[in-house]
Structure formats: structure tokens, C-alpha cells
Amino acid sequence: MDTGTEFHWDVLEKIRDQEGGEGIFPVARGQYCSFAFAGEYDDYFGTPVNKIKSGLLVQTVHSLDACNPETNLVITDCQNVQAAILLGKGPYPEEGQAHIAGYTPSLIGHHLAPEGPLELSKIDNVSDLRAQASEIGLRSYDESEFEEFYEYRLGNDSIDAFCGCKLYYPDSPGAKL
Q1: Residues sharing a CB contact under 8 Å with residue 51, sequence separation 6 or more, in sequence order
Q2: Predicted TM-score (pTM) of this structure
Q3: At a CB cut-off of 8 Å and minimum separation 6, what does 135 contact?
Q4: CA angle (13, 16, 22) in 5-degree steps
Q5: Beta bridge pairs of residue 44
Q6: How do the pLDDT tens digits run along the chain, 177 residues long?
């Protein structure tokens, strides 16, 4: 008899299923290309897509990993059919400052204006943003590396970096993908 206290190995096996690569839940897709439960462990969530300027879009993607939370940006250029993931970095405690051992957040917010040096409204394309990010020590990946970086798999757990193009710029080349 199951008293509710037994460990459910079937659930653990589903979570750790490397062959299927999908988490327990299919990706839930919301308004304006938002999503939840993406990735192998269902821990990636995306905000609604926003316009930066004509043809350029941004979406914030959060990972709910307890020890290594992430907040990254997906930047999409609908006219030039380019997209990139801009990774957050830190904030890390200064030497001698109290901190939790093993907790290493990678957050993007403090790198963006007005607090940080990156001004999204002043970029003209994905390549410009990647170059600016590199100058201040941030990593980025192009759309060909999305699956590897985010552990996205084909099928229910994939996301469409060009979803916002279909929504905001339906006649753009990016909307045709």
C-alpha cells in the first residue's frame, strides 16, 4: 500500500531521462511568446517578448536552479534572422563579504542601463550587442547554440527564438521560420 511516504522512483527516472530529454511537463506557452517548464528539468521560464526597436526583440529567460539561478536575455533580429542568448554574470560577493558557499547566480539585470553599461535601445543588431557584451566580459551564444546551452530538446521542450517576429513583425524574414 502506498502511504505517500515512499519515494517515487518513476518520477525521478522521468526527470533524469537522458534519452527523452524532456522534463515531466510539456512547455506551457503563454501570451506574447512567454513560456514555462522548458528544458530538461522544467526549470526555464520566459517572460513575454518586448520590442527594443524596429525589428529587434528581447525576452528575459529565468532558470530556477536553486544553487545557480540564471537570468539571461534572448535578443532577436527579425529582419536579419539572427538571435542570441546574452548570459548574465554575477553579481558575486566581494572578497571578505558574507556569502552562501556554492551559490553562484548569473544575473543580467545589473549589466543593463541604467545600472549597467549595456543600453538595449542603442543597439542596431544582434552582432552589435554581442560585441558590446564581450567588451564587458559577458558571454553570448547564437541561435545555433540554443539547444546545447539551455539543454532544450526537440519536441515539446523546445522554444522558438523567432516567435516574437511572427507576433510583432509578421512580414519579416524571421517570421517565416
Answers
A1: 57, 168
A2: 0.78
A3: none
A4: 105
A5: 38, 63
A6: 444 545 545 554 555 554 555 567 778 889 999 988 887 777 888 999 999 998 999 999 988 877 778 888 999 999 999 999 998 887 665 656 565 666 666 788 888 899 889 999 999 999 999 999 999 889 888 877 776 665 544 445 667 889 999 999 999 999 998
